[in-house]
Structure formats: structure tokens, C-alpha cells
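C-alpha cells for chain A. Residues wanted.
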């Protein structure tokens, strides 16, 4: 399977998993607050619907209002949520499922083959190529599924194909996090272990971190499970507010380890 087909399949699988989760929610669950500031479960679904509708039609949300200190993308996102606020849960879920089915049909009829090509539509007109768009759709659906699962107290889905894609995106960001966000000094060695995935990093004299072969010792070692890595990498919570089901432990330089954990947030 090529990379683009893998992204499409992970997104489609994520949509199916999310729909199964939504089917079992009660009225109170739809109103539950999530880790996305100001958004309920219903608002998260409205956000996902607005994006799929845009990708299908090119139509942008109505009533985009500038938000002081925030980007155009934030204006677009909030407008997409506001447009569907007040809809009942059944109507919203049905509209989202219909938009997903239409998107699946479009992708099946004309499978993307060039990751560098410009897609027909992007949310807010962001200048993503096809590879970035498809990868980000897999990420967005799965991360928001996790937002909903935490909000309603139904953990799961850590074995989904999209979960592996998200984990890889966050792993790839580790050199930047260690050197730039955490400011690890030259000569520092760091080990980050996420489940079975391990990254050893070394900060060179130019204050740049590189992935290096495994070593026996390091200045700081961070062990996390996928849930903790997801919550931190998606910027949902701080290290001292992880879900009870998540795991993160630092050994060695505790101050640097904490700075790395706090710098893991790489999604908008």
C-alpha cells in the first residue's frame, strides 16, 4: 500500500470508529466539555463536519469573524463550529456521516496519486499539498476521537491505524522539541521511549538535535505510553494533568525532562 492510500484508509477507518463511538452516546455525553477549549463533544463533531463539507464542495463556513490574537485558520475553525451549534445530535451525526460517505466516494472514484499535487479544496484555503492534507485528515479525526473518548470516559482506539500515523508525526518533531522548545544544551543526550518506539537524540554544537543510534545512558530518559504522547503532542493537557489511564515518567535531568514534555505540543 502506498503512503497516500495508507492515509486515506486510516482516515476512513477513523471515521468508522468515531461513528461507532457516537452511536453509543447519550444526550448528556454530546454536551460534555472536551479538552478543546470551549468545545463540547457536539462542537467537535461540528468541526469535523465543516471540514469534510469543505473538502467535498469547496464551500467555506458562513459568518467568519476575526478573533483578536488568533489566526485566520482559527477564525475559519470557529465559524465552522458556530454554523452547526444548536443542531440536535442525531441531525449533526447524520450530516457528518453523509459528508464522510461522499468524501469516501470521491476518493474511491479518483484515488490521489501525487503527494505534491494541490488538492481541489483545503479548509480555509491553507496551502497544503495532497500528502499533507490526507495525513492531517487521519490525524484530525483520530485525535478528536480521543478528545471525545476522554470527555465521555470511554478510553480506547489506541491500536487504530491512524494512531500509528499520529505517533510518527509526533516522533518526527522530537529533535525540534528537544533543541528549540526545551533548549537542551550542546552535548545533551535524550532517550524518549513511547511504547515500543524509541528515539535517541543528541544535541550538537550548533544547538541542533539529531536522532542517533541507541546508547546505554543519557542525560534524561522519558518513558510514555501512546495515550500520554498523544495528549501532550496534541497540546490537550500539561504533563501534570494527564488522564489517569496515561503514563509518563522522567528519569535523569528532571527539569529538562519536564521542559521536553511541556514542549511536545506540535499541533495547532
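Reply:
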Amino acid at each position: 500500500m502506498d503512503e497516500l492510500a495508507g492515509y486515506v484508509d486510516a482516515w476512513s477507518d477513523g471515521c468508522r470508529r468515531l461513528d461507532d463511538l457516537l452511536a453509543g452516546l447519550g444526550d448528556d455525553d454530546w454536551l460534555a466539555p472536551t479538552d478543546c477549549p470551549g468545545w463540547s463533544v457536539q462542537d467537535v463533531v461540528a468541526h469535523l463536519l465543516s471540514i469534510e463539507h469543505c473538502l467535498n464542495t469547496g464551500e467555506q463556513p458562513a459568518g467568519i469573524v476575526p478573533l483578536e490574537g488568533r489566526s485566520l485558520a482559527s477564525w475559519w475553525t470557529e465559524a465552522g463550529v458556530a454554523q452547526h451549534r444548536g443542531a440536535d445530535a442525531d441531525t449533526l451525526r447524520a450530516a457528518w456521516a453523509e459528508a464522510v460517505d461522499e468524501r469516501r466516494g470521491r476518493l474511491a472514484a479518483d484515488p490521489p496519486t501525487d503527494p505534491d499535487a494541490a488538492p481541489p479544496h483545503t479548509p480555509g484555503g491553507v496551502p497544503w499539498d495532497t500528502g499533507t492534507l490526507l495525513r492531517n485528515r487521519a490525524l484530525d479525526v483520530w485525535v478528536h476521537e480521543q478528545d471525545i473518548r476522554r470527555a465521555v470516559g470511554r478510553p480506547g482506539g489506541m491500536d487504530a491505524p491512524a494512531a500509528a500515523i499520529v505517533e510518527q508525526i509526533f516522533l518526527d518533531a522530537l529533535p525540534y522539541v528537544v533543541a528549540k522548545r526545551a533548549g537542551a544544551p550542546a552535548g545533551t543526550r535524550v532517550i524518549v521511549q513511547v511504547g515500543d518506539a524509541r528515539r535517541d537524540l543528541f544535541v550538537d554544537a550548533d544547538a541542533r538535535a539529531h536522532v542517533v543510534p541507541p546508547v546505554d545512558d543519557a542525560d534524561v530518559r522519558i518513558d510514555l505510553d501512546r495515550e500520554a504522547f498523544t495528549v501532550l503532542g496534541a497540546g490537550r493537557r500539561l504533563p501534570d494533568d494527564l488522564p489517569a489511564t496515561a503514563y509518563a515518567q522522567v528519569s535523569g535531568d528532571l527539569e529538562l525532562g519536564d521542559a521536553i514534555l511541556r514542549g511536545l505540543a506540535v499541533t495547532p
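The chain has a mean pLDDT of 94. The first strand starts at residue 189 and ends at 194.
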